[in-house]
Amino acid sequence: MISAVLEDVGKLVIKEFPVPQPKEDTVLVHVKACGICLTDYKAYSGARTNLNYPAILGHEFTGVIEKVGERVRFFKEGDAVIVSPVIGCGMCKNCRNGFPHYCKNGAVIGGDGMDRIIDGAFSEYVLIPESCLYHKPDNISFEAAALTEPLAGSYKGLIEYSQMKIGEDVVIIGAGSMGLLVTMIASRAGAGTLILVDVNDWRLELSKKCGATHTINSHSENAIKAVYDIIPEGPDLVFEAAGPLEAAELAFNLCRRGTRINEFGVTTKGTIPVSPLDIHFQETRVDASFTVTPWAVQKSILLMEKGLVDPTRIITHSFRLKDINEAMETMKISERVKIIIKM
After folding, report:
1. DSSP labels for 39-88?
2. Total domains present in the chain
């Protein structure tokens, strides 16, 4: 099999390896599609430093089971599967409380957010614990299924953590892949006014097709004034899905009394000025969310199966695994959102 191995910053090398064999409760998955996450690109570009080289990344993926270990009970060869990248031990307090992504004994498959990172899906085949697998419904394409993880993360942050309610006025900062998935969910969940803030007019135009009622280019106009021109009483919820520290700061500056914030997008180090006094008297409720949980994955599969959300609407480019370096370079261009690697 071939795999894309990140050997150093900017050094992604296609290499051949023997196909691994499943043992005990693991399965061998023939990867069909894998999305490129911004965390993958940050590792490639050097902005992310919490991994050891060499590394095989890729955590947004789906495929077909090639072989199963002798203790696998609920899946068989030939099953089309969706994979959650979070591996919890299942026995610790965090796992049993429903937070396997907090597990100190666990790992993440090709992703970020946990101390231990194991080989991911920028590879033709990958070994996966049975506990990370979900059956792919027949009416969900492999391309859509590959985006289950980011869709689940968006659902978890917006609905489960920030508890968006029908009719609420919502501002989403960032019209990248996560911001657009959040937009689709917010639109389906009954947001009243749904404002997208970004610096890229092309992405803002795409956000209208995902359910945004209004768009603001924060480079060409004052975002705070523009938001309050649209909703004079201010937003109920501000969801930061952009990544830069300036976006995190803007989220706080958009608050009126009682606004809820979700700091969802920033995954790199840094600080912003925040006033505890303002938080106190405005009763600002600040939340955050990273990665996924089993219930969020199941909810996102249901959203796709029922035709409520179609994540393929944000796919702008696809590449073969052998061309992954070209795909990583394409991450730099302004007119792209989600890039898919196909095997």
Report:
1. HHHHHHHTS--SS-SSB----EEEEEEEEE-TT--S--TT-EEEE--EE-
2. 2
